[in-house]
Amino acid sequence: MPAFSHAFPEDYVTAHFANVAESCLDEFTCLLHCSADARVARVYGEKKKEADLQGMSPRFSKYKPIYRISDIDEPQRGEIPKVRAMIVLEQKPLQKILEMTRDFDSLLIIGCDGCAGIYQVGGEKQAEVMKTLLEMGRKIKEGKDLKARATTVLRQCDLHIVASSLRPLVEDHQAILSLACGAGVQTLASAFPSKTIIPSNDTKFIGAKDRELGRFYELCRACGDCLLYETGGVCPLTRCAKGLLNGPCGGQSRGKCEVGGWKKDCAWIQIYNRLRDTGKLDRFTMFRPPRDFRVSQPPREIGPIQEVKP
After folding, report:
1. Domains detected in the chain
2. Do 217 and 204 touch, CB atoms closer than 8 A?
3. Which of 144, 154, 212, 232 sits a CA distance of 20 to 30 A from 167?
4. Residues 112, 120: Cα–Cα separation, whole Å
C-alpha cells in the first residue's frame, strides 16, 4: 500500500499554527503531524521557477493527496519482509538540529528521493516539514526569522545530479541541511566545499522494513566478504548477536538467543534450517576462519585504478 498524505483546509492550518506557537518548544516536536500536509500541498501549488531543473522533483499539486510508492511487498507475519535493501536512517532529535543550525540565518534544506525518501525520513514532504519546524523553532526560541528553503533531488549520493540541480540555489544560503544518509552528506560537501553541510539524520545500517510491525531490521553490514552462499542467505554478522562465523554457540536454547533474554531467534539455527531445507547441510559444517578485516579497511574504493604519471 502506498504511503500518502491528505491536505487540510487552509483555515485549519492557520488556527493550528497559532495554537502551536503559544505552546512551549518541547511540545512542538509533534507539530504538523496532520497540518503539515496542508501546508505542503499549498506550497506545492505555487509555481516554482526551479521545478524544471535537472534532477529536481516537480511533483506539485494543490490540495491533492501526495503519493509516494515504496515498492515494498507486504511481509508474512514472523518473516523478514521481501524488500529491496535500503540504507536505514533515523532523524536526529529536533533540539540537536536546532542547535547545529543556530549560527546560520539562511538555510537550504535538501531532501533525497532515494532511501531517505522511500522510508519517509528525508523526502520531499519531510524537507518541507523540517523547514517549518526550524522556522518556528528559531522564532520561538530566539524571536528571529530564519530564511529557509526546502527542495529535494533524485539521489544525493550522485555528484552529477547534486551539482547540476542545486548549484543555482546554493549561493543564496549560508549552509545546507541534508536529509540524506552519510554518503549524501559527503557528496554535498564535495560538490560545494565552501558551504557548511549539516546532517539531520543518523545513518543506522543497511536493512529492510517490516511494513506490518513497523520495525527496521539490519540485514547487511557491507563487510566486503559476503558469506551468504555458505549460510543459506542469512548473514551471521548482522543476525547473530555475537557475529559468529561458526555456530551455534552454547547460548542458544530452543532456537532462541541468550542475548536479550532468549527473545530473538538464533541466527545459526535459522542458517541450519535454511540449508537443511535446500539440501545443502554440507555447507553448515564448513569451518570458516576469522574474518580478514583488510577487505573492509577504510577508506574503501571500487573501480578502475588511475595511474598518476609523474
Report:
1. 3-68+81-205 (3.40.50.1860), 225-292 (no CATH)
2. no
3. 144
4. 10
